[in-house]
């Protein structure tokens, strides 16, 4: 049984990293679990290696596993510290707004850009905080819509799964776009699947008359294009400029995805 412990643990770590990269789950929590598991495994294997060396027993595999966990843990550490400048700004805003909220402030009060604590928390994938705010039952429809849009465009499916059951109309325009358009133009396949599951209209356009399919083609997101076509997207539909989705294609993969499935 002990021979399978390290491979099994490594498999768990790889799954957690895959979830982290794909945006499934809370990034902070996943980073913490990966680092804790890697650190613990490294220490245990290093200790076993030393103990076996002292007793003149073979310790090669323990050394190998120690190196593996050290490398994986280092990669996870670097990954956890990687944030874009926009993320840094949003995270700073989140901390500021959350402090105001904890001191009795309104978490749904928007600034001049239309941002509030709820929308920024949704954008960053802070699902527990989003749940806490929604539990108050005081979130305005506009705030819910903006939070859902930010979650959709950033692929925060866990947040969407919390917001959508509140009764928010999945086809309600948010600003100049729709939730499905926001997800499609950013290549968020899982978010598109979730929105379609909740009744999103696959052919509903944004304010400019652009369909989710055209947005996905412009983004060169072939998996999203294929998903929308399978879900009934009108391939021949044109935008305000009279252009169809095919006219925006830049790759053979997207061309292939635009072919409707055989009946």
Structural account:
There is one protein chain. It is flat and about 75 Å long. Helix 4 packs across helix 5 (117-123). The chain is mainly α and 263 residues long. The protein has helices spanning 5-22, 27-54, 60-80, 85-102, 117-123, 127-134, 141-153, 157-163, 179-184, 189-197, 212-218, 222-230, 252-257.
Give a short summary of the structure.
The chain is mainly α and 263 residues long. The chain is 60% helix and 0% strand.
Keyword list:
263 residues, mainly alpha
How are the secondary structure elements laid out?
Layout: H1 5-22, H2 27-54, H3 60-80, H4 85-102, H5 117-123, H6 127-134, H7 141-153, H8 157-163, H9 179-184, H10 189-197, H11 212-218, H12 222-230, H13 252-257
Helix vs. strand class = mainly alpha
Distance between the termini: 51 Å
Tell me about the largest β-sheet. none
Helix content: 55-70%
Mean model confidence by pLDDT: 85
**Multimeric state of these chains?**
single chain
Low-confidence stretches: none
Number of helices, where a helix is a run of at least 4 consecutive DSSP H or I residues = 13
